[in-house]
Amino acid sequence: MADEPVDKWRIETNDRYNKIVNSVISLATGALVLPVLFLRQFLGIPTDRALKPLLTCAAYASWFCLGGSVLIGLLYSWLSVKWVKIAWGQKTANPQRCIERVLDVLFVLMMLLFLAGIAESIRFFITVRVVS
User: Fold this and answer.
1) The pTM of the whole model exceeds 0.85
2) Distance of CA 126 to CAs 38, 40, 123, Å?
3) Quick one: which of 59, 94, 105, 122 has the most CB atoms within 10 Å?
């Protein structure tokens, strides 16, 4: 193993992308509670009342997109370790170009799902109807 990475720029670039990925994972994880928080705290739905009848497709779509964003972000983080191995000149089971393309696709997909999840949360907030 070398004392210096073969491609130092890969590690620096990877660190920058991982900061974004970690932020998105944190935000998406936090946003998963927004529909419940909105119903309980802002609309004052008591804890003894079930929330399921109030949850619309938008709430479920939000959870699906945000959860998918978190899972893809975790997969991105795992695969980025392979990218760092390449930067250190070590062999990986997958070719470098394949890893680079998959990382690009995962990053874009994670971001799109995160934005879609936020959009679905907003749609839920706007369209929810509470009947007393």
Assistant:
1) yes
2) 11, 15, 5
3) 59
